[in-house]
Request: fold
Amino acid sequence: MENNQLAAQFLLRKDICFLNFGSFGACPKPVFERYQQYQLELEQEPVQFITATGVAYLKNARMALADFLYCNADDLVYVANPSYAVNIVAKNLHLNAGDEILTTNLEYGACDRTWKYYCKKMGAHYVRQPIGLPLTTKAQFVEDFFKGYTNKTKMVFISHLTSSTGLRLPVEDICKRAKELGLLTFVDGAHAPAQVPLNLSTLQADIYTGACHKWMMTPKGSSFLYVNKAQQHWMDPLVISWGYESSSPSHSQFLDYHQTQGTRDFSPFLCIPKAIQFMEDNDWHRVSANCRKMVMDNAPRFTQLMGATPLAPLHEDFIAQLYSIPINSKDPVALYRHLFDHYKIEVPVMVHDDKVFIRYSIQAFNTQADLDRLYVALEEILRERKDLLG
Ligand SMILES: Cc1ncc(COP(=O)(O)O)c(C=O)c1O
Reply:
């Protein structure tokens, strides 16, 4: 199917030029319909669904996700979002005073905040190692990153794809080096599943979290936490419930603890097999490759328009379906609102430390016309609204 045919598969408003798939994803119709079927089934017989049939569906969905991620289904639990997963890990790590978490200065704000909170509480340090931009090579990145390593470093925490800068980071090399140094590794892969190839067996991160409701296109609130078997024993749940001292324990305490979390609607997780099928039915490898090409083909004219230095070479090592352009804006919030209200373009304007970026995401439903519309809008704003962009 071509992009205009795939666009018809999505529920997104037709009057909006939607260039922000990255923030919250968007569900295709067949996946959303499956979601509503599960919710209906739940409401028709809540007891059976929550205690029996739904539990079986959940196991099935976990197995499908494990196949997709190339890992063991017993090493995966569902969480609502990556923030939740980061909180589980940070709370359980039992940091001592002086311990260090080594990370980059490119991480997602909510995760930074979680780590800062727990580090402050325990007298530990969250080391945001400055990464020189533009990125040059993977080897240089690894070298820059490990300059922050000391004998106090306890864990490496790093994004697979960064949020405001939209960069794909060489987490394979980082995990390998961290292992040689005897460090625990935790990869924040919020944007990775279905945007970049992901094989948790070969990556060998100790801990990995990813969102399914972004690039896998499941309903909101479906994410996962993967923990290597060797680390599962210290991973308590945030919510203690029936899985603790379970009256019918399964073969895995990790699953019991994390999957039994009180009454909740777990329909979003159940849609994972349908979302995987949707991608298979629509030749998603090709769709994704086309999207990456559109991202890269357009990147130079946007950086030129903004007079900006690209954040990384235009190469699959660093760029996938997100592209961030550094901009000068005195009022990023007003710029975002103006793009939406005046031009009906949904595109994030993101502030990271003291820098501002505009980030476009390209997904199956986007066409060249969307990026042309953004380009023309930015040209006009540059010309006429120096208070917003200049
Ligand atoms: C790098 C990164 N980590 C984590 C998240 C997860 O965010 P949340 O838990 O707020 O859904 C995001 C969301 O965009 C992200 O970009």
In short: Residues 23, 81-83, 108, 110-111, 159, 162-163, 188, 190-191 surround pyridoxal-5'-phosphate (CB under 6 Å). DSSP finds 15 helices and twelve strands in the chain. The chain has two domains: 3-19+283-384, 32-277.
